[in-house]
Known about the structure:
Oligomer: single chain
Order of helices and strands: EHEEEEHHE
Radius of gyration: 15 Å
Shape: globular
Largest sheet: 6 strands, antiparallel
Amino acid sequence: xxxxxxxxxxxxxxIDPGETAETNPDIFGRSLAEWVGERLREQGLPAExxxxxxxxxxxxxxxAPHAVYVACASEEEMPDSWRxxxxxxxxxxWLKRLFGTDTRPEAVQRVxxxxxxxxxxxxxxxxxxxxxxQS
Length: 135
């Protein structure tokens, strides 16, 4: 399945030092994940409440029969903003991949496109770039 890592800069997302108690040290992104969830719901996607993972914050999106996630994490603090990264992925599907009936790529692409549209339309996002990754 083809996806991409999105990188960008923004000072729009608050940092709560206590949020790293739920992630790895110095990994922020709760406010970014909450913003992404709101933008996805505005586009008609069923985004749920954000959850903490060791690698950052995730926005679950239930697109039956798939569980798709938008992973959000800080990359580095800059003088007047932060550099952020986002990645969209779906769980499971190994048996469907084996039989060539896996529809996860379409679900991932649907969520990825919505996230990219939200980032591109926000005046608070700068230097948006995409890095292809194979998953």
